[in-house]
Amino acid sequence: MDLGIAGRWALVCAASKGLGKGCAEALVREGVNVVITARGNDTLQATAAELRVLNPAVQVVAVAGDITTAEGRAAALAACPQVDILVNNAGGPPAGDFRDWNRDTWIAALDANMLTPIELIKATVDAMAARGFGRVVNITSAAVKAPFEALGLSNGARTGLTGFVAGLARQPLLASRNVTLNNLLPGPFDTERLRSNTAAVAQRAGKGFDAMWEQRRQSNPSRRFGDPAEFGAACAFLCSVHAGYITGQNLLMDGGAYPGTF
């Protein structure tokens, strides 16, 4: 299927590895020029080199910086001739007990997983509407549908973003101008973050990593972890010309782990 987005420009946040990288790869395969961001410059530049090999016909611009800061956002936006596609992504806040979190802890979580995406949306959607095309995909979490006890910071911040997007996506000034906003909700994907989280859980439980990893794999109905490439493919479809009638939605990708009907 031709997604009809070749030649567009995308800003993909936290794209040096994991799910962000999966999204960038899928867009590059479709002929989309990308600006990718991440805090670690070495890994980011290595990813940029891989993307250029993947499709030499597109432009790949790497901007190292912290997207949760005003300076980081300004640098990323300045590097993109125009933002037709925005993929919001940032590392999740740490797990823990809410009794141990203070105001600074909460503000950091909100900055990364709610306020930064909102600022980037604010900076881009009106120009998208003026051009008659725009796609915003926010990478949130399965915790928006089924909160995890130890991930209260993520539960709160990402759910706040979800509520904001639900209202904004339905504004006629955007929806009628072919600008869509949707959220992708990943469950357990085989990423560095999942492996580090699993290692921490295994250590607290006094178990080995391999045993805990296998336990988590077997607990999913699919008996596997998600592949960042299939996550990226879903992202690319939501960014395509074929998804113009899909907006304000939450697409859960968790291998069937969520037990509800809706």
Which overall shape is indicated by the principal axes computed on the Cα atoms? globular
State the low-pLDDT regions, or none: none
Strand content: 5-15%
Order of strands side by side in the largest beta sheet? 3-2-1-4-5-6-7
Number of helices: 9
Seen as an oligomer or otherwise, the chain set is single chain
Order of helices and strands: EHEHEHEHEHHEHHHE
Mean pLDDT: 95
- Rg, please? 18 Å
Helix fraction, binned, reads: 40-55%
Largest sheet: 7 strands, parallel
Total number of strands: 7
Query: Which class do the helix and strand fractions yield?
Result: alpha/beta
Distance between the amino and carboxyl termini: 29 Å
Report on the architecture of this protein:
It is a single chain. This protein is α/β, with parallel strands linked by helices. It is 46% helix and 14% strand. The chain is built from nine helices and seven strands; from the N terminus they run βαβαβαβαβααβαααβ. The chain has helices at 18-29, 41-54, 70-78, 103-131, 152-168, 172-175, 192-205, 209-219, 228-238, and strands at residues 9-12, 33-38, 60-64, 85-88, 134-139, 179-186, 250-253. Strands 3-2-1-4-5-6-7 form a seven-stranded parallel β-sheet, with helices on both faces. Helix 1 (18-29) crosses helix 9. The longest helix is centred in the middle third of the chain and has 29 residues, at 103-131. The mean pLDDT is 95.
